[in-house]
Fold these 2 entries.
Entry 1:
Amino acid sequence: MSRISKKPLFVHRSSSLLVCGFLLAVSCCANPVRGEDPLPSWNDGAAKQSIISFVARVTAEGAPGFVPVAERIATFDNDGTLWGEQPMYFQAFFIFDRIKTLAPQHPEWKDKEPFASVLRGDVKSALAGGEHALLEMVMATHAGMTTEEFDQIVKDWITTAKHPVSGRLFTQMVYQPMLELLTYLRANGFKIYIVSGGGIEFMRPWTERVYGIPPEQVIGSSIRTKFELRDGRPVLVRLPEINFIDDKAGKPVGIQQHIGRRPIAAFGNSDGDFEMLDWTTSGSGLRFGLIVHHTDADREWAYDRSSHVGKLDKGLNAAAAKGWTVVSMQDDWKTIYCVAP
Amino acid sequence: MSRISKKPLFVHRSSSLLVCGFLLAVSCCANPVRGEDPLPSWNDGAAKQSIISFVARVTAEGAPGFVPVAERIATFDNDGTLWGEQPMYFQAFFIFDRIKTLAPQHPEWKDKEPFASVLRGDVKSALAGGEHALLEMVMATHAGMTTEEFDQIVKDWITTAKHPVSGRLFTQMVYQPMLELLTYLRANGFKIYIVSGGGIEFMRPWTERVYGIPPEQVIGSSIRTKFELRDGRPVLVRLPEINFIDDKAGKPVGIQQHIGRRPIAAFGNSDGDFEMLDWTTSGSGLRFGLIVHHTDADREWAYDRSSHVGKLDKGLNAAAAKGWTVVSMQDDWKTIYCVAP
């Protein structure tokens, strides 16, 4: 329990505006004007209403559902929830690009799977080796350097790499309605965490710029690191060993490790988020769970129960009984992707 | 790099006052009045001056040492830095008290070391078994319950247990000068983390009340947890397996895992903090490292190079060359413990 002022802080906070890939600070104390729509890219309907109603209830001081600011923790999955994940996780494009970049230093890759397939541009064959092949590619591209070197590698990639289908920068494939939701929750005193199966150090270099979420509020899968002195200077070296997998039943574990308290709201899109949603919404007091359902084959992708990426089956079955909001991208969202300035 | 407003936020923040065991919110926007001493329990001298000078330089907008608010991360060791650690770590008292409480459910402990020694009140013999015996006692008292059950166990203990020498509550053995330092740093836009070798879930139940540091800003050693359904309700069960040791070279690793960026200031008291101080102060730009040296046998304890708890040897040798401030508790502090209201 917090003894920090029970008064909602939002009137004292600097506000900010998320614009496709850029977090812009706006004048201090600028709040959404009362009566103005905080979620303009959301169609009016049950999903939008459930969000607004939840936020109104937990922020109404003196009302039974009131939650102090310190406890207003919201967790968001990343892939498929905040940005796209088709035709494969965007981190996989990073892996393949890195293999191509590193190939000159690894002449042996020409004859060694799964690297040989990647270098031939045959992603399907590269992934045919299953988890073992994937792990080998992850370690070859994510380990062996310092944390600061890896940070720079990701920063360089994310500012230039483009999605093969949309031709957009990956950071321009974040969902405009979700950016509005992040801004809306923040304006109401929420602290927002990403809780993703993706690599924690793959996300941290850009989540602050793109989502307004600082590195310390990113939770993800990780490899081990080791403290070393290099030329007398301390560094952390990334080792080719799994440290933590932040997916499925790992998500509540990761949340407890990093946050140390149960969120009051959780947002996901696949069965990898099921345990996080269940953990969050089974706490006492008002809770909120939301699933983004990919239903828009024209503007994005349509997939659920049998998808190889972002499979959503158990969650769809359980949502009604658990009281989770299911968002249909086709019906509930006016716009899909953020609009570049 | 943050794109959040570069303007120091402290004029917009709620301030708070730490009073022995209680974090009190004071009126919004109340800042330390300019000219008023922000560290009244510190004697004027080089140590106090080094703190004030560092804070002034990193908060002076437009000056070469300026650091944006988002990057003002400070890490504090707990045992021996924020509260006492003699004649043994306070968490050890918790372990022994728990063994006594749990003894009726474990009749076998009467004849089994190290438990038998604890039950006879012979702490020295209990600890004679070294690391193996200690680990056995940790697991017997810290594992097997849910995270929420453990939280309540710690809360109950910390509000009643008293230190055998001082007769004070353990939370009244926090250092008044350090409470002032936490308040001073917060008022200047710093985000403060505890980075302790102690148990992360042993600290979280009370650090917000005592230090104003919320659970998500506590980093410590941990055991593994497992997500389970109990009667259909999700819980996290604490397992008798070490997950992470947040000491020595583990501290920078823990900092990177949780925060994802290098602090600009670090505060410790023993060689267990050496790597954290080194990691912090070897970053670019202005950095600050401080060691609390226990030199006051009358008002607290005096120990360093050969102590079995809080050994400080390497740090004393290196401090001058590394530019770290060494605080002498006897000379630099007017008061040691916080003053109960």
Entry 2:
Amino acid sequence: MGAAMMILHQMQMSGNCYKVRLVARRLGLPMRLKEYGLMDGSTRTPAFLKLNPNGRVPLLEFEDGRLLPESGAIIFHMSEGSRLQPDNAWDRAQMLQWMFFEQYSHEPYIAVARFWLRYAKPQELEKRRHLVPEWHAKGKAALSVMESHLNAHDWFAGRACSIADIALYGYTHCAGEGGFELLDFPAVSAWLARVAAQPGHLPLGEGW
Amino acid sequence: MGAAMMILHQMQMSGNCYKVRLVARRLGLPMRLKEYGLMDGSTRTPAFLKLNPNGRVPLLEFEDGRLLPESGAIIFHMSEGSRLQPDNAWDRAQMLQWMFFEQYSHEPYIAVARFWLRYAKPQELEKRRHLVPEWHAKGKAALSVMESHLNAHDWFAGRACSIADIALYGYTHCAGEGGFELLDFPAVSAWLARVAAQPGHLPLGEGW
């Protein structure tokens, strides 16, 4: 038996899971990956629902068996006290502001468009084809909110790359797969390059 | 001119705004309320978009002009170091887990069903009538996740009522207005009564 290690229950293509891998890599926190299938129902089995009644990944399993779902909560907890969080309360409040923005106003359009347009079966996409214009309109609105912030700031909270940047990077950097044109958002594009240039960066396609 | 005071830009019927009023009342933090209309576009005017480019309330304006949107970030910031947050990192991680759960898996169905079924114009509801079954199915799934947690715990994080409970209370206590039957969730119903019995409770309909 090897040394005890955190286990990330995940799907490799999921931007929410990628955020956790990226924070782990940046902070040098070793973890094992347990992979689930994209549309095979494997996060809705009775065994998985015992681990997370909400039936979703990412789910972080600690060495002692404690379990934590929700990418935002996971990356907040992993990075408490580290250089990936600002050290004053006001900047931390803004960090959380952008993390909640991402989950409510960005992910449901940008990640969802990417999923159905790029990863789902064609017949499943056809059932949702009428939703594509709304995904694109609301996703572009979210990118515009980011653009207006980045016209005046290098990072989303405080003076360095924080978990707010990582949370937004997760699905923004691959938004092209959902039919978004990132070149229309030059400040966002420049910020994506800044995030990817940080030491310890990990591309989405790579394991931990 | 009166003493400087925080201003909450809000809509009285919004559960997201109610969370902020409730935390302020519990902690004895005075604030003025600035009311916006429900469907009159008043949070999408150029003047408001300068305050919050995402065009949403709640938005908290501090005495010195600093601005913070996103209910989750606002109530986290207002309650840092108070009895409304657990004092250890693991319980705080679980607090955030439930706050992200609420914004991603609960509010988009339970709050949205309540809004369109109860507050919107009938002709606007009719355009969305085909979405009601999905709102109800996913909203009930969220209530079931809460029920399973509350079958084993009094509160969502740590050993006392925290901002995770307040975040979930906001739209759960009025879910009946969206066509949800709370009596089907006895542990949720008992928890709602526990939250409402806390000192300094404030009903949704009351101003600060």
